[in-house]
Amino acid sequence: MSAPEIKAPQTIFAQADDTAINTAARIIREGGLVAFPTETVYGLGADSFNEAALKNIYRAKNRPSDNPLILHIYEKAQAFSVCDGFPEAAERLTEAYWPGPLTVILKKKPGLPGFVSSGLNTISLRLPENTIARRLIKASGTPISAPSANSSGKPSPTRASHVLYDLGGKIDMILDGGACDYGLESTIVDFTGDVPCLLRPGSITREMITDVIGEIQLDSSVIGSAEPPRAPGMKYTHYSPLADVTVFMGEATAVADEITSRLRGARLGNPVYAGKKLGVMATEQTKERYAEFGADVLVLVVGDRNRPASVAANLFKILRNFDYYGVDVVFAEGFAEDGEGLAIMNRLKKAAGNNIVQCHHKD
Ligand code: TXA
Ligand code: MG
Q1: Is 283 close to ligand 1, i.e. is its CB under 6 Å away?
Q2: 146-198 pLDDT per residue, tens
Q3: Does any ligand 1 atom lie closer than 6 A to the CB of residue 126?
Q4: CA proximity to 47, closest of 39, 180, 55, 170
Q5: Cα 140 to Cα 354: distance, rounded to the nearest angstrom
């Protein structure tokens, strides 16, 4: 069967049991598109060796065509069908963190068709930990190329319902496997240069990487410099909710003070906020600070400041919820940029279009 037309009006939405996974694998083999859970975010998968199916991924997501896809495998041995071997550091890092939320960029196996990696001579590979994802890849009998299963530019989906909202009617099937454990896209490390380089921070933190392979480079997009990023996807506007987001950085109480003072200004009639629905992305530690605004302000708790993993797991869901509730302006509390905080802030700053306010205690 050739790849289906994207206008297909029906998307099968199924709990990811054995029957559904087998159906999904058949759809992949026949050139269709299946959204499936991974431990990071939901992916939109197709057979890595079917050019027409890969094109349909770009159409369904409205994704720029120069942005290559990650190939997902179910066991390390499958990597050798697409890459030219693992350099020593890549070998050690994947031994430590595969299966898991880590993607490595390696030299592509000579002779593979160009479309497998958007014409690049490198390939990105991930061995996910999620068992639904691995059973699907195994049953499909091919590596599965999969970007995050959102419309391009929207926050990545961490629930099957997010995929349905963005891509319902545009893809063949959605496998529902519940909420994603980590909630941020995988850490990407490039091993094709002289020194390994972190292209996208994630739940495998910079510290966890240096523990295994020593110091690494940080790509321009990670440190916020003006150089073009090495992962083509990092240059695009991302994670942009419809709402206008501002991130407030600094010590948590200084942040809550600054947000509170802006909300009071809005209540007193600051014309900037006239007619706008306001929201706050708060934390367990700070939520009570906004109680005085009652129903005038939608306060959503993203997680616990002492457990960054809880913030990572909820971030994209909360950004989407502000949109679903029709909030126009979001004041988001920021986080320290270490450990998982580096990945959280990388996504949050993009959601805010770099609208960032530094907060200090007033004395
Ligand atoms: O957690 C994840 O990685 C999820 C799940 C579904 O596995 N996938 C994901 O894919 O986030 P996507 O397409 O949204 O992001 C892939 C990123 C893009 O920024 C892309 O430019 C970069 O990886 N990338 C892919 N192949 C590359 C290559 N050969 N060289 C440099 N960057 C590459
Ligand atoms: Mg994406």
Answers
A1: no
A2: 999 999 999 999 999 999 999 999 999 999 999 999 999 999 999 999 999 99
A3: yes
A4: 55
A5: 41
Helix, strand, coil tally for the chain in percent (to 5): 35, 20, 45
Tokens of 295: 């129903």
Question: pLDDT tens digit string along 65-115?
Answer: 889 999 999 999 999 999 999 999 999 999 999 999 999 999 999 999 999
The CA–CA distances, whole Å, from 190 to 75, 123, 217, 287 equal 20, 10, 10, 39
- Please, which residues have CB within 8 angstroms of residue 46's CB and are 6 or more apart in sequence? 28, 31, 32, 33, 34, 53, 54, 56, 57, 144, 145, 146
Q: Provide the CB-side half-sphere exposure for 46 (13 A, CA).
A: 26
* Cα–Cα distance, 128 to 333 (Å, whole number): 31
Q: Is the pLDDT of residue 7 over 70?
A: no
37 Cβ closer than 6 Å to some ligand 1 atom:
no
Whether pTM > 0.85 for this model: the answer is yes
Query: How close is the Cα of 43 to the center of ligand 2, in Å?
Result: 9
Ligand nearest to the CA of 133: 1
Dihedral sign of CA atoms 255, 256, 259, 261 in order: negative
Cβ of 117 less than 6 Å from ligand 1: yes
Per-position DSSP letters for 188-229, written without gaps between them: EEE-SSSS-EEEE--SS-HHHHHHHH---EE-HHHHT-SSPP
How many angstroms does the Cα of residue 195 sit away from the middle of ligand 1? 20
| DSSP-assigned letter for residue 75 | S
At 70 the three-state DSSP class reads: strand
